[in-house]
Amino acid sequence: MKKTNISKFIAVGLCICALTGCGASPDEKPDTSNPIVNSNTNEENANGSSENKGNDILDSANLIGSVLEFTDNGCLVNQAKDIEGGAGIKIEAPGMEKKENAVSVTYNPDCEFVIATVNAQSGVTNVTTGSISDVKKQSEVYLYGEFADTNHFNATKVVIAHWE
């Protein structure tokens, strides 16, 4: 009986020690090596037109990320980063974002807002007109426009992805 209690105590202690190493330390620097910046601007997205069809509406975005904060004239976006040479993207988990690494987005006066319903298997299934009020915290956004500098983006079109 004593041996099983001691064994259980040791097993629990080892599990606690193993899980303690999984947290982020305050000294860690975020990976800012490969920000997603799509330079494939074609005539459609350069003009902010909604004529993009299907997955093009997501693939040709100039900036991808999730919304940290939003206002009436812009938002603060946690920018997605390329992984493995473009094999995918990664983004910091909600609550773990570093605001000093975020991109400040300003909506141009004629900025177009679009809601894209996206299915993981079939891609974009529906595109509807949206508004500035559809931009919420942690919304996944695909932005068209241009960078004023590294941390400032002027948006001509905002696509809000709703995953099903």
Feature tags:
164 residues; 40% strand; alpha+beta; two-stranded antiparallel ribbon; globular; 8 strands; 5-stranded mixed β-barrel
How would you describe this structure to a colleague?
The protein is α+β, with helices and mostly antiparallel strands and 164 residues long. It has one domain (34-163). Helices cover 16% and strands 40% of the residues. It has helices at residues 2-20, 43-46, 56-59, and strands spanning 63-70, 74-79, 81-83, 88-90, 103-119, 123-129, 140-149, 152-163. A five-stranded mixed β-barrel has the order 1-2-5-8-7. A two-stranded antiparallel ribbon has the order 3-4. The radius of gyration is 21 Å and the shape is globular.
Please render the helix and strand layout as text:
Elements: H1 2-20, H2 43-46, H3 56-59, E1 63-70, E2 74-79, E3 81-83, E4 88-90, E5 103-119, E6 123-129, E7 140-149, E8 152-163
Briefly say what this structure is.
The chain has 164 residues and is α+β, with helices and mostly antiparallel strands. It has helices at residues 2-20, 43-46, 56-59, and strands spanning 63-70, 74-79, 81-83, 88-90, 103-119, 123-129, 140-149, 152-163.
Specify Rg, calculated over alpha carbons.
21 Å
Number of distinct beta strands? 8
Poorly predicted regions are: 27-52
Q: What fraction of the residues are assigned to beta strands by DSSP?
A: 35-45%
Category by helix and strand content: alpha+beta
| Total helical elements | 3
